[in-house]
Amino acid sequence: MWLTSRLFRSYLYRFCLLWIAGKIANAATAAFLKLPPLAFRPGTELVVCAFEVAVLVAFIRRANEDILLGNIGLRLPVALAPLVFVHFVLSLSLSLVA
Amino acid sequence: MIAADSITVSLGGRAILQSAYVDAIPGKITVLVGRSGAGKTTLFEILVGRRRPDGGQVRWNGERVPRPSLALLARRGLFYHPDRSWLALSLTAADHFALIGRESLGVTAWLNRRVGTLSGGELRLTELALGLALAPKVALLDEPFRGLEPRHREQVADALRRMAERGTAVLYADHDVESVRRTADRLFSMEQGATRLVEGFRERPLAEWYHAWPI
């Protein structure tokens, strides 16, 4: 029910925007260091993903939506865990396309 | 049902809570009263695990809860309403009821409006309707009447009574004499971080309430 809810979809939408911002910053840094900009580097991806999740968590807490999640029995790490998978799928797909 | 037992909290060397105790009983409305800044919100945040106390413990059905969290307690049947809005403003009331998989109760007039466009009273009623739909065993509400106009206050009082009639242990914090007088079955008073159970408060005349009130 959680993964099909509009609340999760709104988090997914915001997370995709954060992923785009993270990917632009990551690609710019890689180009500056003369590395392939869109290559999949697991360590870097992990750091960028952690940053994206942290920003989303800050938004959620600022809006007190962590209380809404808590009231339906969902802890934030559990609620947002699927987004880590989304990050890696998007980054890996982009590196394969590029 | 739920109890905060001997809770102690200090901030910057100042004692906020001193061996504070409060509990909620099924089918009863228990009210915690005290001045603004007395520590009511801090005590509620400790009950739902949003803040760690320096000492004391949270109990659920008499058993100590080692690391309480809202999600953990919600799975056991707790509903928490803080003193600020906590719904997703970009979603409609209907989306929230869909999220919990329950039918909407009493908010049909604005069911399909985005929560961010509702008035303060409508928002509070929607939050409480969601709480009712969850059919909690325990409801913790921090100042549920704050900022409401009289007709909405009456509706909120009705919602609390309905919860208690269903067997929910309702515990709310407030400092409005009239609201408390109309709804409370039990009363805890909080002064300087300590709590006490007030006996025989219903028999007191209204004038005495205002003098006896710790606000």
Identify the notable features of this structure and list them briefly.
heterodimer; A: 98 residues; mainly alpha; 4 helices; B: 215 residues; alpha/beta; Rossmann fold; 6-stranded mixed beta sheet; 4-stranded antiparallel beta sheet; 7 helices
* N to C succession of SSEs of chain A: HHHH
Task: Report the span from N to C terminus of chain B.
Answer: 28 Å
Which CATH class of chain B? Answer: Alpha Beta
CATH superfamily of chain B: P-loop containing nucleotide triphosphate hydrolases
- The neighbouring-strand order within the major sheet of chain B is 6-7-8-3-9-10
Strand content of chain A is under 5%
What does this structure look like?
The complex is a heterodimer of chains A (98) and B (215). With 98 residues, chain A is mostly helical. Chain A has one domain. Chain A has four helices and no strands. In chain A, helix 1 crosses helix 2, helix 1 packs across helix 4 and helix 2 packs across helix 4. The longest helix of chain A has 27 residues. By secondary structure, chain B is α/β, with parallel strands linked by helices. Chain B has one domain: Rossmann fold, CATH 3.40.50.300. In chain B, the strands form two sheets. In chain B, strands 6-7-8-3-9-10 form a six-stranded mixed sheet, sandwiched between helices. In chain B, helix 4 runs parallel beside helix 5. The relative contact order of chain B is 0.21. The mean pLDDT of chain B is 89.
Concise structural overview:
The complex is a heterodimer of chains A (98) and B (215). Chain A has 98 residues and is an all-alpha fold.
